[in-house]
Specification:
- This protein has 133 residues and is of the alpha+beta class.
- The protein has one domain: Nuclear Transport Factor 2, Chain: A (Roll).
- Helix content is 26%, strand content 44%.
Length: 133
């Protein structure tokens, strides 16, 4: 796969369903996918496999009043793709609006095998995920 192919996969990944439902995104990942969620909150940690990545993460994030991810740019280097995003999240009185990124690593078949999340305001995102609404 070329870096252009990997960029196209990442764009389709973000476009697959609403941001708070990962049900349509699992088809872009290898079965042994690993996802690294940053921070110090109930969602933080490293998740292994489809069930953990595409079900457990979403379940731990809920309930959210707002979860919006707007893709700003996508770029690649070999088997790595970086997507810069603008994120808005809210639960009850806790709210964050921040820039962030995801780094995706691809296998030779063009599937996501590992991903890392980044945010410019991790404290704010931690507050949202810790809040009880």
């Amino acid at each position: 796969m070329t870096f252009a192919d990997n960029i196209a996969v990442v764009r389709r990944f973000y476009e697959a369903g609403p941001p708070d439902d990962d049900g349509e995104r699992d088809r872009f990942a290898a079965s042994n996918v690993v996802w690294h969620v940053p921070g110090d909150n109930p969602v933080s940690g490293t998740y292994h496999g489809h069930e953990a990545v595409f079900s457990d993460i979403s379940a731990r994030m809920q309930p959210l009043d707002v979860w919006r991810i707007d893709v700003v740019d996508v770029m690649a280097n070999a088997d790595l793709v970086v997507a810069t995003v603008h994120l808005v999240a809210a639960r009850g009185e806790a709210r964050v609006e921040t820039d962030g990124a995801h780094v995706f690593r691809f296998d030779v078949d063009g599937r996501i095998v590992e991903a890392w999340g980044f945010t410019a305001d991790q404290v704010g995102l931690d507050d949202v995920f810790r809040s009880h609404g």
